[in-house]
Amino acid sequence: MTDILATGTSALLAFQRALSTVGNNVANVATPGYSRQRVDLSTRGGDYYGFGFIGAGVQVGNVQRIVDSILAGRTLRSAGELGRMTQFATLSGRVDTLFSDNATGLPQPFSNFFDAAQAVAGDPTSAAARQSLLGDAQNLVGRFRSLQGQLASMDRESDQRLVDGVADVNGLTSQIAALNREIVRRTGMAGGAQPNDLLDQRDELVRQLSTKIGVTTVVQDDGALNVFTGGGQTLVLGDQAQTLATVADPYQPTRHSLALSSASGPIAIADAAVGGELGGVLQFRHEVVDAAAARLGRIAAGLASAVNAQHREGMDFYGQMGGDFFRMPEPATYARSSNGGSATLTAGIVDASALTTGDIVLRYDGTNWTASDAATGAARPMSGAGTAASPFLVDGVSLVVGGGAAAGDSFLVRPTAEAAGRIAVAITDPNRIAAAGPLRGSAALGNAGNGTLGAIEVLDAGDANLLAPVTIQFTGPNTYSINGAGSYAYTEGAPIAINGWRTTLSGAPAAGDTFTIGPNGPRSNDNGNMRVLAGLDSGGVLDGGATSLTQGVAQLTSAIGSTARQAEYARSAQQAIDAQLGEQRNSVSGVNLDEEAADMMRFQQAYQAAAQIITVANETFQSILAAVRG
Amino acid sequence: MSGRISTMGMYDQGLAALLARQSEAARTQLQLASNSRLLSAKDDPVGAGVAVVLDRASAALERYAGNANVLANRLNLEESALVSVGDRLSRIKELALEASNDTQSAESRAAIAAELRQQYDGLIAAANAGDGTGRYLFGGSQDAAPPFAATAGGVGYAGDQAQRRIEIAPDVAVADTDPGSEAFLRIRTGNGTFAARAAAGNAGTAVLVSAALADPAAWDGGSYRVTFDGAGNYQVLDAGGATVAGGAYVAGTAIAFRGVQLTLDGAPAAGDAFSVQPAPAQDLFATVKALVDAASAPGTTASGRAAQRNAFYAAIEDLDQARDHVLNVCAGVGARLAAIDQAAGEREAQSASLKSTLSGLRDLDYAEAASRLSMQLTALQAAQQTFQRVQGSSLFDFLR
What is the distance between the alpha carbons of residues B286 and B306, in angstroms, rounded to a whole number? Predict the structure, then answer.
């Protein structure tokens, strides 16, 4: 009798456990990272009764956590990638919208500026047209500055995201380390049985960590989980968590990169080795913010340089030669924080067409200065001596070194990265707009021949004698003198170049004919210079003259759009992969309520049957008692 | 898909599908609301870059149209000023012919001279025509002040010889108004090739009847003098004093040399001379002034009459040259106005082609978008309904 009771009791207990496991599954149906659990039932060893073994009931072998460990690894990698791409796509999308929208982008004010210049060329004496050119120039400069400001604030925001992200990562790694300690302890106490719920918790934390920074894991024999970054640096080792920190850039202290704290100081983590959201932020800063700022700055520098050069060749409404139209943005320079010497660096842009979008590092080895690309470290050809008389020239930038440099000192030069924030309009008086050509020619009214002067082209606006009056007098039909001196052979259409300008004569002049070239007067309605200036948008200005400013603006828009599009594609592809992996994980580990309901019925019925066995045992026992009582 | 699916997975899947349908529909709605296929550059990076260039080209075309309008206005004003000058010159020619008629009395000539003076003032006024914005059409690049002013000796010109060009279409620039120097000052006199003129102190009654270039190939552009000895002979001397031709003078018979045919009438006195030289340039005002002077001359003696007739001959010849010149300038203005019209047509064609390319890049196909939206909304509805149905069925519902 006792064996029937014992068997029934074992069944009652086992099914109670099974039912409570079902209950736990149902209770955790919505818990993130929860893996369903299953009770493994096994028979208890039977008792021998001479004729054979009779079963002694059921026992709970183990409460098993249903997981696919290979799938878990893939899920982790996918979470890291998805975190990175989501962050990158979201941030790039913001820059794309900023540059695409007519109200915030560059194309509209850029186009307006050149239209206003064309309007001045159409009516150079109109005060309204001149005022409107200055207004549109201010708008264009304002747009350059506001775009640069937006990019700078996104750069600061990225930095803040890094700092916040590091705090999150440190929180997660220390929790994982604590869980490791607990899991190892409990596994030991339970003689190897795993604390399922803690494992689920730890897996969920690791998944969150991977979303932040992208990790790989290795399970230890004792149940602890070691966590590494994508680049292999240790984040969690057993119950020890490494602290992640931010370190200031040696050149730009306001920018940070990631490092692991160690007793011997911070160990830098290469940006490429960082995944997850933090990797996305770093990638965004490199590929979008820096690239966009450099391209934008290069357009600003190219515009300022081309417009200024042309503007200096013209004559303003007061009859004076034009000055700078835009204030030329100078390159940003940063001394390395570890510099021991007192050297200073002054940089200027000398050739906008030679500008690249990269940054330059200038390094002193004790005897020589060398220039290299900041991103790749490749050497850049540099000429000059670094003095004011002979500055270093590298990629269109002039560099003058002052003070004394110590060996190992270096500087970062960003020729275009901050240029868009430094451009300004240099003139405020509309009459200072140099619309007119500086020179005008005339043929004496008494000329007997029909020779005519062609257009006068300025070759060198800096020539000291540019505006000096010049008389070309024909001493015969085929010879002429200049200012009464010399005798030159006349060839129709051949250029005559003097004092930094050039013109042509055509037709058949007669002996005694004179032509004079002299300065254009004040209040001239000439538009010779503005016509050329208004056409600068389509002339080759960037990339050594291969790319026009308009193309530069178009490339800026499409480059940012293209990056955002690639990011969007990559994100949605990764999302699909992640969803698929999630589905696979769910199909293995997720709780299905219908399944649990079926299990519940199954175990409930079994439980009821087991209770019935106890009743039967009891009744059997009672019937024997009754028989004894008589 | 394995045979097993978790309840949460089912929920997540249903929800993800729902959200995806919702964001698709929202995107189409935004496209419809903004009438743009491209909401930002990432929707079509290459297209967005091309659109930047085309937008710039399109804006430049509009700006060219603005320039062309200003220019057309100025050229129209120049044309009417030149037509007015031409009309005045025609009237002056009529008056000159009238005044040169021998039947005119000194009084009637004085009346004609008075009208000529008025026409002269009118010409200066026409040459100082403005463009309506305070600038003067014929001042060259110095157009802030009236370019022409009457002085003691004639008319002074304060402008210069600059003529600006204005872009009215891509790579098409048209010259602006002509400077006064080219419109009114640099005018060939005589018959355009050479001018035959009586010497100032001629005492005889010889008058010029005609001076023609019979053989342009023989004309060498030199300066010649036809002199008379008073005994019926003439001599043609070149600039160096060498005799080129000579013979007996017969009134009404042409004197020919170097391709020139000079016909004189009347009797030259000894020492009288006529000069033939390459036509010098003379301004329009000086030509009219000479006419006024000729009409005001007394012309009482026979030689005085001859001098007056020679002066009329020269002035009328110069006047014809001036009128031709002004008409030529006017024709040039007309040609430029025609070029502006033609450029306007070209601009419109380019603009239309740009707009259609831009529209293809950016604009939304409404029919397609509207039907897409309705399809997406149907899909959204289906997703919502299936979500509800699938989530609503659970085995637990039957455990009662």
Answer: 21
Q: What is the pTM of this model?
A: 0.88
Beta-carbon separation of A442 and B396 below 8 A: no
Residue A81, pLDDT score: 94
On chain B, the residues whose CB falls within 8 A of the CB of A590 are 5-9
CB within 8 Å of chain A, chain B residues 198-237: 221
- Contact list in B for residue A555 (CB cut-off 8 A) is 49
Query: Helix crossing, A276-284 with A127-189: angle to 10°?
Result: 160
Handedness of CA B356, B44, A300, A391 (dihedral sign): negative
Chain A residues near residue B67 by CB distance under 8 angstroms: 118-119, 121-123
Chain A residues touching B193 at Cβ < 8 A: none
| For residues A345-354, average pLDDT | 91
The Cα of B83 is separated from the nearest Cα of chain A by a number of Å equal to 24
DSSP category for residue A537: G
Cα–Cα distance measured from residue B179 to residue B156, given in angstroms and rounded to the nearest whole number: 14
Cβ-contact A454, A440 below 8 angstroms: no
| Inter-chain touch B167–A114, beta carbons under 8 Å | no
Contacts of B346 (CB under 8 A, 6+ apart): B169, B172
What six digits make up the tokens of B388? 């509800």
- 3-state DSSP call for residue A508? coil
B257 Cβ contact list (under 8 Å, min separation 6): B224, B236, B244, B245
From the list A447, A529, A121, A434, the residue with the least C-alpha distance to B161 is A447
B16 to chain A, any CB pair closer than 8 A? The answer is yes
Burial of A610 per CB tally in 10 Å (0-12, 13-18, 19+): buried
Nearest-Cα distance to chain B for A588, in Å, is 7
Q: What is the ipTM of this complex?
A: 0.86
| Contact at CB, A29 and B70, closer than 8 angstroms | no
> What residue ranges of chain B have pLDDT lower than 50?
1
The answer to whether residues A277 and A574 touch, using CB atoms and an 8 Å cutoff, is: no
Confidence (pLDDT) at B1: 44
Distances (CA, A) of A623 to A39, A614, A617, A618, A627: 37, 14, 10, 9, 6
Residues of B in contact with A119 (CB under 8 A): 63, 66-67
Distance CA B90, CA A298 (A): 63
Distance from CA of A253 to the nearest CA of B (A): 33
The CB density around residue B47, as the number of other CB atoms within 10 Å, is 19
CA distance B41 to chain A (A): 4
Q: Name beta bridge partners: B264.
A: B208
In whole angstroms, what is the distance from residue A449 CA to residue A444 CA? 10
Instruction: Say how many CA atoms lie within 13 Å of B116 toward its Cβ.
Output: 29
Mapping DSSP onto H, E and C, the string for B5-69 reads: CCHHHHHHHHHHHHHHHHHHHHHHHHHHHHCCCCCCHHHCHHHHHHHHHHHHHHHHHHHHHHHHH
CB A56 within 8 A of CB A623: no
B181 contacts on A by Cβ (under 8 Å): 442, 445
Residue in chain A lying closest to B164 (CA):
A526
Asked if B141 and A586 come within 8 Å (Cβ–Cβ), the reply is no
Interface of B with A in 167-186 (CB under 8 A): 167, 173, 181, 185-186
A489: helix, coil or strand? strand
Query: In this structure, which amino acid lies at residue A566?
Result: Q
Residue A473 tokens read as 């007098």
Instruction: Supply the angle between the helices A196-213 and A69-100 in degrees, to the nearest 10.
Output: 30
Q: Mark which residues 71-90 of B lie under 8 Å from A by CB.
A: 71
Residue whose tokens read 């390395």: A336
Q: What is the pLDDT of residues A122-175, one digit of tens each?
A: 999 999 999 999 999 999 999 999 999 999 999 999 999 999 999 999 999 999
